[in-house]
Write a structure and sequence with these properties.
Glycerol-3-phosphate (1)-acyltransferase; 8 helices; 9 strands
Length: 261
């Protein structure tokens, strides 16, 4: 098919295994993964949605795909997956096609209509199919205004009854030596008319609102604004950690007693 350079081969078994592997990597490299309050309920709604769905993921880090794979396994493993990727990169890691990833040339004008046709066909044959995409199309700093390529909106306009969620991700240091992952999930309100231009505005607005809300929560450093879903236990050194545990003392940096400046 013109515009699709590498076809996907969705495998639920491989997705489950790779999701487990992604979780191990996140647990080893990050102190914690925290979901902003309300996000777990949104992920549950995504899991129970019968029709096709789109998940629009922000793209600030190399870790974003690992976060997406882990979220899939943890919160909506009952859904199939289809995701676009630069074909030149996918050619180096063809095993990723078993995660539902297909390769396109994002600079080829033929890729956009071909991607829409491919996704429509895949979702029609996939129970509870999910199109996961990073619509910004490049790595972006979380402080940049959200600007989207037209692919995601084109799919939303072309697939009847499709619902959409946006996922904002930040990576920041709080009080541990390792960074933490902060995630916020928000449903995208459907526009009055299911046209590409209308979906483009709705999706970009929702992603910007979601990113702003997550940034505000991260800056607050208030753990109660989040649900801790992975990690979060302070560690210094295995021997010293054991000594502190025996003495009933905390291993983390205590800042709760300090008054705001």
């Amino acid at each position: 098919m013109s515009g699709i350079e590498i076809a996907d081969r969705w495998s639920p078994r491989f997705a489950a295994f790779f999701g487990w592997y992604a979780g191990r990597q996140l647990a080893g490299r990050f102190h914690a993964v925290r979901l902003a309050r309300g996000s777990v309920a949104e992920l549950a709604a995504l899991r129970e949605t019968d029709g096709p769905a789109l998940v629009a993921l922000s793209h600030a880090s190399w870790w974003d795909p690992m976060v997406a794979v882990w979220l899939h396994r943890r919160f909506f493993p009952n859904r199939g997956n289809v995701t676009p990727m630069d074909a030149r990169e996918l050619a180096r890691f063809r095993f990723l096609t078993r995660l539902g990833i297909f390769g396109i040339d994002p600079d080829d004008p033929a890729s956009l209509p071909a991607m829409v046709r491919h996704v429509e066909a895949r979702l029609s044959s996939m129970p509870r199919g999910t199109f996961v995409v990073t619509p910004q199309g490049r790595f972006t700093d979380v402080r940049e205004p959200v600007a989207l390529r037209p692919g995601a909106a084109s799919v939303l306009a072309g697939v009847r009854g499709m619902q959409a969620w946006c996922v904002a991700v930040e990576y920041a240091f709080w009080v541990d030596a390792r960074p933490e992952i902060f995630i916020r999930v928000q449903r995208v309100p459907a526009p009055a008319e299911s046209r590409r231009a209308a979906w483009q505005v709705a999706l970009q607005s929702a992603m910007q609102d979601n990113a702003d809300a997550l940034a505000h929560a991260v800056r607050s450093r208030q753990a109660e604004r989040f649900d801790g879903v992975l990690g979060g236990e302070a560690r210094v050194h295995p021997v010293y950690d054991l000594w502190l545990r025996v003495r009933g003392r905390s291993r983390g940096i205590e800042v709760g007693h300090r008054r705001p400046g």
